[in-house]
Amino acid sequence: MNLRHLLLAAALLGGTVPAVAAEWAVDPAKSTITFAGVQVGAPFTGRFERFDAKIAFDPAQPEAGHAVVLVDLASARTGDVQRDAALPQKDWFDVKSATQARFEATRFVDKGHGDYEAVGTLTIRDKSRPLTLPFHLTLDNGQAHATGHVGLVRTEFGVGQGAWASGQWVALEVGVDVDLVAATKPGP
Q1: pLDDT number for residue 20
Q2: Are 134 and 116 contacting, i.e. CB atoms less than 8 angstroms apart?
Q3: Residue 45 in contact with residue 101, Cβ under 8 Å?
Q4: Which residues 6+ apart lie within 8 Å of 112 measured at CB?
Q5: Please, is 68 exposed, middle or buried when counting C-beta atoms within 10 Å of its C-beta (0-12, 13-18, 19+)?
Q6: Under 8 Å CB-to-CB from 82, ≥6 apart: which residues?
Q7: Residue 157 has pLDDT above 50, yes or no
């Protein structure tokens, strides 16, 4: 997939960084995008098994960075057979109409002490909203590790239609956690 930089988390970079933002490759075996919600008063968690992220980021010039993260909505898994069967359906992610969620960060903001914000737009079900993803970044020997959390209101993105549009059965608030490991891509 051609995504130019990061999401849902958007931040990883490290090692020796040139004056131009370095491009980073996320390691899917070491990275996760998870979510948490509440259904009928009981908390649940899940994860997206497939996503791709491309990131251009220089900690010395975070404002010049850019990231794109594409998440395969059909890959959502919670461990509950009924819930997992419902998530791809029209009332929830509607994967027949929109197969991916997209987070595009157009810049990063250095908050100090390894803390950053990825400022951009999240699109789910063809509904786009501004989103700022705060994350903590550590750099070690050319590898970056970014962890972040953001809260979303699912109905702002059309997730939960009909009887599910209210918070009566499933809470409107959803937490999303990003834990990404990346390394710089070799130069051309």
Answers
A1: 59
A2: yes
A3: no
A4: none
A5: buried
A6: none
A7: yes
The candidate with the shortest Cα–Cα distance to 72, out of 38, 49, 105, is 49
E-strand stretches of 61-142: 66-72, 76-77, 100-112, 115-124, 127-140
The structure's pTM equals 0.87
With a cut of 80, say whether residue 98 has pLDDT above it.
Answer: yes
Q: For residue 92, count CB atoms less than 10 angstroms from its CB and return exposed for 0-12, middle for 13-18, buried for 19 or more.
A: buried
Distance CA 145, CA 101 (A): 22
* Residue 4 confidence (pLDDT): 28
Do residues 136 and 147 lie in contact, with contact meaning Cβ atoms separated by under 8 Å?
yes
Percent helix, strand and coil across the chain, each to the nearest 5: 10, 50, 40
Rounded CA-CA distance 141/168 in Å is 48
What is the per-residue pLDDT for 172? 98
Q: In 10 A of CB 130, how many CB atoms?
A: 8
Longest CA–CA separation in the chain, Å? 54
Of 8, 49, 65, 53, give the one whose Cα is nearest residue 27. 53
Region 43-67: mean pLDDT is 96
Tokens of 132: 């700022």
